């Protein structure tokens, strides 16, 4: 499938280096310690964080020098065109869970909470490509909302190559199933450290570094967008808190 038109536009009208529209909100639930909702294009994800708290279940998970990060990735039965019989617990979900845990552990300051546990739950409400990437980004926002100390944002982004060897960032579902090579990266965008890298197929060495840099630039751009939303959320919460204190004093 030709993913780029003669004018250089993708199937959804984006330029090769253009991200999908990102919308997010922090603190969407009151029960968890932190929560977030993130839309990236038509992919929609909810994330919730509980903890840190004491180890639950087997005490063998407790580590004397760091926190145990427990993750669960799942997809709603209505998230795709075909109804999923097993929204969680299948092989793909277990693989996604492990990759999510690997990415978040690299960002959380795990040494601050020894012999404790942090639970991270992500639910894909609608899937349209880049499910893992959106889950990592939503989980990062939920961790920030929970006040978990982190080294920096953990951001994930995908990239692929068009038929003319032009790298494209933040690929959609149609672009994922086109048969090309897909690259997914979870990285710390400021330091440039890569926590997770996964390829659907092997890239030619001449194109590999260009695709990696395209994905990293996508991570940096997503970081700027999410950071602006976090600042706005904190400012709004601060204004609401000050208004509440003022109202209490007036009473």
Explained architecture:
It is a single chain. Helix 1 (91-107) packs across helix 2 (131-146). The protein is built from four helices and nine strands, in the order ββββαβαββαββα. Mean pLDDT is 87; it is low at 240-251. It has one domain (22-245): Ribosomal Protein S5, domain 2 (2-Layer Sandwich). The strands form two sheets. The protein has a five-stranded mixed β-sheet. The chain has a four-stranded antiparallel β-sheet with strand order 7-6-8-9, with helices on both faces. Strand 1 (22-26) and strand 2 (34-40) form a beta hairpin. The chain is of the alpha+beta class. The protein has helices at residues 91-107, 131-146, 173-176, 205-250; strands at residues 22-26, 34-40, 43-54, 68-75, 116-126, 155-161, 167-169, 182-188, 193-199.
């Amino acid at each position: 499938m030709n993913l780029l038109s003669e004018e250089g536009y993708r199937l959804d009208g984006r330029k090769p280096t253009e991200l999908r529209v990102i919308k997010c909100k922090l603190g969407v639930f009151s029960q968890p310690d932190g929560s977030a909702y993130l839309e990236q294009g038509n992919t929609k994800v909810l994330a919730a964080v509980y903890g840190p708290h004491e180890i639950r279940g087997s005490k063998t998970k407790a580590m004397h020098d760091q926190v145990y990060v427990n993750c669960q990735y799942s997809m709603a039965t209505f998230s795709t065109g075909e109804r999923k019989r097993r929204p969680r617990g299948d092989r793909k979900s277990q693989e996604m869970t492990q990759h999510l845990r690997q990415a978040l552990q690299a960002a959380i300051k795990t040494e601050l909470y020894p012999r404790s546990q942090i639970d991270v739950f992500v639910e894909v409400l609608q899937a349209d490509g880049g499910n893992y990437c959106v889950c990592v980004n939503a989980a990062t926002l939920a961790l920030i909302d929970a006040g978990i100390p982190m080294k920096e944002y953990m951001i994930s982004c995908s990239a692929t190559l068009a038929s003319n060897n032009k790298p494209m960032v933040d690929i959609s579902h149609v672009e994922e199933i086109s048969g090309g090579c897909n690259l997914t990266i979870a990285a710390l965008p400021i330091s440039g450290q890569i926590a997770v890298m996964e390829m659907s197929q092997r890239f030619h060495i001449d194109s590999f570094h260009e695709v990696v840099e395209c994905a990293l630039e996508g991570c940096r751009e997503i970081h700027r967008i999410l950071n602006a939303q976090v600042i706005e959320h904190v400012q709004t919460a601060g204004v609401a808190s000050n208004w509440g204190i003022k109202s209490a004093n007036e009473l």
